[in-house]
Write a structure and sequence with these properties.
The structure holds 2 protein chains of 2 kinds.
Chain A (H helix, E strand, L loop, with lengths): L1 H26 L6 H24 L2 H8 L1 H5 L6 H31 L6 H24 L3 H23 L6 H9 L15 H24 L9
Chain B lengths: L1 E11 L6 E12 L4 E5 L6 H8 L7 E6 L4 H8 L2 E3 L11 H11 L4 H14 L15 H15 L3 E5 L7 H14 L5 E5 L3 H7 L2 E6 L2 E7 L7 E7 L14 E2 L6 E6 L1 H13 L4 E6 L3 H9 L4
Parallel strand pairs in B: 3-7, 3-8, 5-6, 6-7
Antiparallel strand pairs in B: 1-2, 1-4, 8-9, 10-12, 10-13, 11-12
Helix pairs in contact in B: 3-4, 3-5, 4-5
Chain lengths: 229, 301
């Protein structure tokens, strides 16, 4: 499982982080103070965290369903819930590793390995929320394409509705309720501080609910869709 | 070991307007130590039945019990040695890694998994391709990897869906030996196949399905049956009209006749024919008993 994850999404993430580190080195070699390194780290990770979360958690369940891998996997004495939870957590660990790996990549540029717990915590919260949404949609659909469309719809709808609320353009109580029911990605915007208190609880509980709901779907929904599916 | 009671499965479209009945009112038991063949034309419900057994689908009627448990509970506790119709495995896995992972998923520690995988590689003569990714294998070799996985699993329930699909005649024969090896008093083996000859050779009973219904269960051996037989005499022999009054010559094949009757009576007449000095080259059923039962079951009798 780890080997597949590292060879698949892991290799792609490493290539993206490597490219980013080289780009920083060529444009700003040893010019910024160490604090600048942390800012660059946070900005790069803020940009790649969303695609990384989707890469790490994407197709977990729907991919196995579509390719029929579940037939071999779950004819063995393995619980699908435990298997997919483990796979999802490993995906999270891979996303979390992006912070130290990129820090090492920025070392030649800044003379130190930039690192910040806040950046790592932001990555973790984003994976919990977005990775949780991806897991939920993966368990609810039968192909990775449908899963991606479902995730995109939720993310775009949430972004549009909250943008309208913040700009005072959304008065309808129904739409405000819909916006309130969607995942609170606005608490994790790149220009905001790490959520605390009620916002943190909202993000964490919502993420945990998505993960729990996804695993419940894995348990309740039949793995196969047809005789030969 | 397996108990199916009034089992039914209907597939419904998303809007639930159209329902397709894949399996209907199936009651059947399979005992430990038994090899059960599952036969039927395409769309008869064979693969649906196997998916229900493994808990990949849920029945819309009736129940499935394996060793007194729900299918998923049984599979998650004990595992099933399962060969799907088309082994679906990640194409970049190597043959050896596939078998080791399969053993590890079965709960074996790494050393034992390695050992089990090595034994299966040897048994299926896959050592030469052990390091090759699955995407580079021919259909027949991939099927052998699937069979190796079954050996690695070592479960008490073995489910094989079209196990000889893609195998050459040599490996088809080896497969029969494999089933004999797997046969054990504590183990039940289910084999779904279109190949009636294969099922007749390996199965104790064959369940014949048609349009989602269990039409009949044919036991191996069993009572003799009246049917058509082919009698082949040395070409110079005269027609055996006296002993076989209903013998019909086979067009274009001198010395060959079709005769009809019950095996014991035909054997008696054949003995008399040989006693009279006739040279009998062959005497065999025109079609196997299972073929005859199959044709009758699917309405082509």
């Amino acid at each position: 499982m780890v080997r597949d994850l590292v060879r698949g999404p892991g290799a792609l993430m490493l290539a993206i982080l490597g490219f980013a580190a080289v780009l920083v080195h060529r444009t700003a070699p040893l010019r910024a103070p160490p604090a600048g390194g942390e800012r660059v780290l946070a900005e790069i990770l803020g940009g790649v965290a969303w695609p990384f979360a989707i890469l790490a958690a994407g197709g977990i369940v729907s991919g196995d369903r579509a390719r029929g891998y579940y037939r071999v996997l779950f004819s063995r004495p393995v619980s699908p819930v435990a298997y997919y939870l483990q796979r999802w957590l490993l995906g999270g660990a891979l996303v979390g590793l992006a912070a130290p790996v990129l820090g090492l990549g920025l070392w030649p540029s800044f003379g130190v390995v930039p690192f910040s717990w806040e950046t790592l915590a932001r990555l973790g919260l984003l994976y919990l929320l977005l990775g949780g949404l991806v897991l939920f949609c993966s368990a609810a659909t039968s192909t990775p394409h449908r899963e991606l469309v479902a995730v995109a719809l939720v993310v775009v709808l949430q972004g549009v509705l909250h943008g309208m609320i913040e700009n005072g353009l959304l008065a309808s109580p129904l739409w405000r309720a819909v916006a309130g029911a969607l995942p609170p990605f606005h608490h994790l915007g790149g220009d905001r501080r790490l959520p605390t208190g009620g916002e943190l609880a909202h993000v964490a509980l919502y993420g945990l609910t998505l993960v729990g709901g996804g695993l419940a779907l894995v348990r309740l929904r039949p793995l196969g869709a047809g005789g030969r599916a | 070991m397996i108990e199916l009671r009034g089992l039914g499965k209907q597939y419904r479209s998303l809007l639930r307007r159209r329902a397709v009945r894949a399996l209907d009112d199936l009651t059947l038991t399979v005992e430990r130590g038994e090899v059960l063949g599952i036969a039927g034309p395409n769309g008869a419900g064979k693969s649906t039945l196997l998916s229900l057994l493994l808990g990949f689908l849920r029945p819309t009627a009736g129940s499935v019990r394996i060793a007194d448990r729900e299918p998923r509970a049984y599979v998650e506790a004990h595992g099933v040695a399962y060969l799907p119709e088309a082994p679906a495995l990640p194409p970049r896995w190597t043959v050896e890694a596939t078998l080791r992972r399969s053993a590890a998923l079965g709960g074996l520690p790494p050393a034992a998994a390695r050992e089990r995988a090595a034994a299966a590689l040897a048994e299926l003569e896959l050592e030469g391709v052990r390091a090759r990714p699955l995407r580079q294998l021919s259909k027949g070799t991939l099927q052998r990897v699937g069979l190796a996985q079954v050996l690695v699993a070592g479960s008490e329930l073995v489910v094989l869906d079209e196990p000889t699909h893609g195998l050459d005649p040599l490996w088809t024969r080896r497969f029969r030996d494999l089933v004999r090896t797997l046969r054990h008093p504590t183990r039940a083996i289910l084999v779904a196949s279109h190949n009636l000859d294969e099922l007749e050779r390996i199965a104790d009973r064959v369940a014949i399905f048609h349009q989602g219904r269990l039409e009949r269960v044919v036991a191996r051996g069993g009572a003799s049956h009246v049917g058509d037989y082919r009698l082949v005499l040395a070409a110079a022999e005269p027609a055996p009209a006296e002993l076989f009054p209903d013998a019909r010559p086979v067009t274009g094949r001198p010395g060959e006749f079709r005769v009809r009757g019950e095996p014991a009576e035909l054997s008696r007449r054949l003995g008399a024919l040989i006693a009279r000095g006739a040279v009998v080259l062959a005497f065999h059923p025109e079609e196997s008993r299972l073929e005859a039962e199959f044709r009758a079951a699917v309405g082509e009798g």
